[in-house]
Design goal:
Length: 605
């Protein structure tokens, strides 16, 4: 091009290539755990057979478990490196869909693990060091594999590997999933490629279990500590084998040669050990896992805190909550002023308990870090008292939505829900008490002594009626006049009178009526519970409660409520209880109209 046009862009192209290489270098130096896992799963990543063929001078593949099966997801064979023979065992994936189906996507069945076990025993008998390659999402968990003893095959391999008298080296070349990987990885030395991953459950499965969505896989990958770097820090992996920039698939031969160097280096160390030292070395390696910062055999401090969801077994029972609410209600209503010391003390204790429950819930939900981050941003804000900016408001709203969603789960955070309910009831009582005191104060300020005297007169007349004393016609007329004047004064003070009625004498008829009504109500409640059980409405009612917690005004709530009411109404339509209830109501209304000519719910004075 330079010869044809006379323009030379060599320097610019070289500069762009250098810039590209630098950008690639920066990118691959700061990979997240989920990004490393995606590299480990790359379809062009070298397979076990690729590595074996690149590092061995001679190679013979061996097949079969001597029980009539040969699992293609596990490859085994004997190969030599620099004159030393090794037994190679590894998980084999495919490069395309056809190969992956043939290799079962690198997920072995029990036949594959039994084939691997046969080769391990063969190597132990002939004194061949064993090199295993791990690259599997996990053991194949279909029904047939379970019937054929998948768990037993893995367990048998684990037990046998700790008794093999030859050196064992394991290389994690891709992903190592759970027991399916560990079944050929109980080694003296565990090495991992730079972008390999080793986990007890895949991040997608973990996220689906803990966060009910596979979209939380990046977060799960970070929490699981699946990378080679994390395993090396935790002393699970004994070394990290470097990969070329861009991953092992960028230069498969270079990656294979790094694996070869690592195998030779580790074998030099293990070859110097006696049989007893090899067995003890392997045992101690696995015994030391998980003991970082903890001495084996030492007592674990009981006060050591762990971020786990607290058991709801010791949560206060509903009956206890009800009694506490009744106690607080009595204290508030009997207080002479809205804020007496006893009420304040109980309310402060309730708020402290609620704050502790909220903190525990935030920790259990995994939201504590986000809350601390939000508080830090608010503290850094120049004017924290002013309205939140859009970014902070969005974060706060998102955090609140997530908190409400997790809190709404049935059976979860019962202690917190009960305390929130108690605080809401108490707040309403205090608000009502304050309003009553305000009205009293306003009345005392506006009412004259003459009006107060008339109120005293009315109270006296009421007491006489309640005691069953007869009152003459003159007193009745005076009461009516006093009531009219009192109404005029209240209207002048911009206070609305809800209504009046004549007090009825408390007779045996009233007591009988209340007892009968209580009995009917109890029977109605039992009948409704019976209908709910017979019609299978329990699940629908639970769904209604959950939806009501999320949004009590939604269309779904109204629809569910209408459906439940319709089923219960239809079931009770022909019930004799309905006739009894109507009979009682009409009887009571007739008695009231006959005695006072005023309905029961007409008001009070």
């Amino acid at each position: 091009m330079a010869d044809d046009t006379g323009l030379d862009f060599t320097d610019q192209i070289n500069a762009l290539e250098l810039k590209y290489q630098q950008a690639l270098k920066d990118l691959y130096k700061h990979l997240t755990p989920i990004q490393r896992l995606n590299i480990a799963r790359h379809p062009n990543r070298p397979t076990v057979l690729d590595h074996i063929l690149n590092i061995t001078d001679k190679w013979v593949e061996l097949h079969g478990d001597r029980a009539g099966y040969d699992d293609p997801a596990i490859v085994t064979g004997i190969g030599s490196i620099e004159g030393r023979s090794y037994m190679f065992i590894g998980h084999q994936k495919g490069r395309n869909t056809k190969e992956n189906i043939m290799r079962n996507f690198g997920m072995p069945t029990p036949h594959g693990y039994r084939k691997a076990l046969r080769m391990m025993k063969y190597a132990d008998h002939h004194g061949f060091p064993i090199v295993t390659f791990v690259d599997t999402p996990g053991a194949f968990a279909d029904l047939k594999s379970e019937e054929l003893g998948q768990g037993e095959a893995i367990a048998y391999n684990l037990r046998t590997m700790f008794g093999l008298k030859v050196p064992i080296i394991t290389i994690v070349t891709g992903e190592g999933g759970s027991g399916g990987a560990l079944a050929i990885a109980c080694a003296n030395k565990l090495l991992m490629l730079e972008n390999a991953a080793f986990y007890v459950a895949s991040p997608e499965a973990c996220a689906a279990i803990l966060w009910k969505s596979s979209q939380a896989a990046p977060k799960a990958a970070e929490k699981l500590r699946i990378t080679a770097q994390e395993h090396y820090k935790l002393k699970i992996a004994d070394g990290i084998i470097p990969e070329p920039l861009g991953g092992a698939h960028a230069d498969p031969l270079w990656s294979s040669l790094r694996i070869k160097d690592a195998i030779i280096t580790q074998m030099e160390e293990l070859a110097r050990m006696s049989t007893e030292e090899l067995l003890e070395h392997r045992r101690l390696k696995f015994r030391s896992m998980g003991l970082t910062g903890v001495k084996e055999g030492a007592e674990v401090a009981p006060e050591r805190k762990r971020n786990m969801k607290l058991s709801e077994l010791n949560a206060p029972k509903f009956a206890d909550i009800e009694s506490e609410i009744e106690d607080l209600k009595k204290t508030i209503l009997e207080a002479k002023v809205p804020w007496d010391p006893l009420t304040s003390q109980k309310l402060e204790k309730l708020e402290d308990d609620l704050e502790q429950e909220m903190t525990k819930a935030f920790i259990s939900m995994g939201l504590i870090e986000q809350i601390e981050s939000l508080n830090l941003e608010l503290a850094k804000s120049a004017n924290p008292d002013q309205a939140l900016n859009e970014g902070l408001k969005e974060k706060a709203d998102k955090l609140l939505h997530e908190f409400k969603k997790k809190l709404s789960r049935p059976g979860a955070y019962l202690g917190l829900k009960q305390k929130l309910q108690k605080l809401e009831i108490v707040s309403k009582l205090i608000e009502m008490k304050e309003k009553n005191e305000k009205v009293k104060s306003e009345l005392n300020r506006k009412l004259s002594s003459d009006v107060k005297a008339k109120m005293e007169f009315l109270n006296t007349a009421r007491e006489k009626l309640s005691e069953g004393n007869e009152i003459d016609e003159k007193l009745v007329q005076e009461v009516e006049v006093a009531k009219e004047k009192l109404e005029e004064v209240l209207k002048a003070a911009n206070l609305q009178l809800l209504g009046t009625k004549k007090r009825e004498k408390l007779t045996n008829v009233d007591n009988e009526f209340r007892e009968e009504m209580a009995k009917v109500n109890k029977e109605i409640k039992e009948e409704i519970e019976k209908v709910i059980e017979e019609k299978g409405l329990g699940r629908k009612i639970e769904e209604l409660k959950e939806e009501a917690i999320r949004d009590s005004t939604s269309e779904k709530v109204k629809k569910l409520e209408a459906e439940v009411k319709e089923v219960i109404s239809d079931a009770l339509k022909n019930s004799p209880l309905k006739e009894r209830l109507e009979s009682l109501r009409s009887k009571r209304s007739g008695e009231v109209l006959e005695e006072g000519n005023v309905p029961v719910n007409n008001g009070r004075w």
